[in-house]
């Protein structure tokens, strides 16, 4: 049940105080029963600061409480909905409690809950307090020993953090004891008791430690674990090679669970994963899924050092572990595949999600100053923008100094709970000759800086002057912005596109000029190469963009120039459409896309990215008043016209890249498939769906199957219905694939998408209790701009209904969906009224969770 609204009290970074008591050791005993689990806890505590002993605890039934072995009288402690206060305690003592909890009724999926065949935990950020009374904050680090017992038949596998000490069986129940030698915060505690089977392997670290690896999944899923295991071993090796970081336990287990609020969790020695990021086979997973599995496996593994060994002092520092670990997984993936294509994909995501948030009512800094509900702050700002900030450190410092800074950071903060300042200090220590303090503004100020550039060439002095200006719009609570320090990777190109020079400028003022001497000709400048800072570059001329799209030696900027060029062309066409003019394909865009196709053999994966027009949501971000229908009409007309005009070339490219081994998931194979399917999409857009139909019926590879189904789903009619029915019949018992069946319909660009999504919410396979299913239907639909923003407001109502229903069972997931309504101010007044009405309807609900309350009230502004 949701809690009363009186508890909406913000937590402020400025109010941080150190813990009153530290915990040295934790002994936990779980007597596991679905509806009534008993948890006995013995904590060894010692005083750390003045104050009273308060332990967090939620929905716990206290059965016993003992201090140094003696039962504690009722008048010596008090209980309230937030926890337990013990009035008088010595400076060192043992506190023992026995509590009862109900995992079967835990639909929030935080704490100890049931899913599929067993018990699982999720403790980050504040789930441990739903298991036992504890100072549930990351700066309390303790050593854990865990004993659990459960029905031996139903829950044959018993796992926790660290190493297994002993196990046994008695009277049909069995037990196991685990010990984790490393001190850790409570949010990294994990327990699994379930009917799972393991895929096992091993890894020997550089210094000779033998590590047993296990991936635990439901029976029948073992065949889909190979990619996850191979990824894990690659990640372990990479972290040794790249950062000198070795694994520090003899066991590394991963357990997969199908009901999970997020992607995966880095619990020490026992990662718990959403099945979506473990299971993959060519028949069931797309190439994107394969890459996501690899990325998330690497991400959670990398947390062992950046998160577990060095953790966060408080949740305001969340980006300290998340931004850094995302940066590490990005670098890992760039090393496995094409670095430029990886960068393009990452920036695409950043722009579509983070830039959008940073421009709206939910904008917050990488280190927020205040929150109501920390679960609402697992955002792309904390993760992806945080990773960009780490990347800027490295660009400013250079690779070697950055690695040295990382060594200092780990050395100085090992086994402790650190802050963003600790990271800064380590990096600054690695470059004592430079003062980089100004980078800290990226943690404090929200918003995306906008940069403009002015160039002048003076033939007399043969000097080229570049003047850069930066401004950042106000964001909630921050009216005035100070200039950011940003590395600007640039290249000066001659008329043939040869690099005259390339270097990195330090841009740290509102306006700054850079003079380059000995330049023989007026040069074209390529700015922010590789997206060297998370900013919006404005005011580039179309001629310049066309030149860079064709000639830039920096692959990222070549892609970006084409994106910006296409954005300008499409926005112009949107304005013309609103004016009632007939659509006309821009010659320059046609030529640029044709040239891109001609160059396909150079790099098919890059070509696939370059062929993709800017998303509707990105075009919306550039409009004063968003017109989702005009954007949709124009973008579709452009795709159709390009498909028509380039039909022959698209066909030949389709066939050329069509012969990839369906079981091959190497970079080149995935690149070829991506290119083939990009051409398929253009051909279908121009009205030729025959190829999609053929591909759908003749492939066993999920990337190809889903790409074809995506095209068919756009075209109401018999083929669509037959394809969807056959897909459903084939995969109705494979949840992760069934998720795709839902999302392909939710993303569809068909006249009847809204009605179909409404019907799908009543489909027998739609499960509100399963976050993956909710995301695949409702999350996907709310990202389908043209359909979600249906002028009737029915899309908004559907979302509002779902938020209110979900808030009763899983507030974390409910709150996340609210962001679909947060952009209401960007639309016409009719839509504004409809969206605002939904937010108000949500807020009016009595007993709304603080999760949803925070998102809806902030969205309303
Ligand atoms: N630390 C995890 C993310 C995570 C956060 C919250 C969760 O449950 C509410 C679960 C996982 C990561 O970055 O992978
Ligand atoms: Zn993470």
From TrEMBL:
Residues 543-860 form the Peptidase M1 alanyl aminopeptidase C-terminal domain. GO terms for molecular function: alanyl aminopeptidase activity; metallopeptidase activity; zinc ion binding. Residues 228-441 form the Peptidase M1 membrane alanine aminopeptidase domain. InterPro entries: Aminopeptidase_N-like_N, Aminopeptidase_N-like_N_sf, PepN_Ig-like_sf, Peptidase_M1, Peptidase_M1_dom, Peptidase_M1_pepN, Peptidase_M1_pepN_C, Peptidase_M1_pepN_C_sf. Residues 106-188 form the Aminopeptidase N-like N-terminal domain. CDD domains: M1_APN (cd09600). One of its GO terms (biological process) is proteolysis. The keyword Iron does not apply. It is an enzyme of class 3 (hydrolase). Residues 447-538 form the Peptidase M1 alanyl aminopeptidase Ig-like fold domain. It catalyses: Release of an N-terminal amino acid, Xaa-|-Yaa- from a peptide, amide or arylamide. Xaa is preferably Ala, but may be most amino acids including Pro (slow action). When a terminal hydrophobic residue is followed by a prolyl residue, the two may be released as an intact Xaa-Pro dipeptide. Signal peptide: none annotated. Keywords: Aminopeptidase, Hydrolase, Metal-binding, Metalloprotease, Protease, Zinc. Pfam families: DUF3458, DUF3458_C, Peptidase_M1, Peptidase_M1_N. Its cofactor is Zn(2+). Its EC number is 3.4.11.2. Belongs to the peptidase M1 family. This is Aminopeptidase N. The lineage of its organism: Bacteria, Pseudomonadati, Pseudomonadota, Alphaproteobacteria, Acetobacterales.
